[in-house]
């Protein structure tokens, strides 16, 4: 897992500046929330979340068609990550 340094925020930053941090999630696709210098949670933009949801749904329907959709969803997610980096 690649964590972008600019996408790391503290738990207290989320509490104090939610709007700003949510906008950061839009910019990077997701932000990593740290508590006591340890990873605690991830906040996804809606676009990144929809991509991840597509992958999870495809895995749940893991017949041949599901595997194909899973691969397509992963490719879309990679495109989002590359445009955000």
Strand content of the residues, in percent?
A: 15-25%
Strand order of the largest sheet: 1-2-3
Overall mean confidence score, pLDDT: 82
Q: Provide the CATH top-level class of the largest domain.
A: Alpha Beta
* Helix count from the secondary structure assignment: 4
Structural class: alpha+beta
Share of helix among residues?
A: 55-70%
Q: Whole-Å distance between the termini?
A: 13 Å
Shape: elongated
Number of strands: 3
Give the CATH architecture of the largest domain. 3-Layer(aba) Sandwich
Poorly predicted ranges: none
Q: What do you see in this structure?
A:
By secondary structure, the chain is α+β, with helices and mostly antiparallel strands. It has two domains: 5-44, YefM-like fold (3-Layer(aba) Sandwich); 46-84, no CATH class. The protein is 62% helix and 19% strand. It is built from four helices and three strands, in the order E-H-H-E-E-H-H. It has helices at 11-16, 18-28, 46-60, 64-84, and strands spanning 8-10, 30-35, 38-44. A hairpin with a 2-residue loop joins strand 2 and strand 3. The protein is elongated, with a radius of gyration of 15 Å. The model has no long low-confidence stretch (mean pLDDT 82).
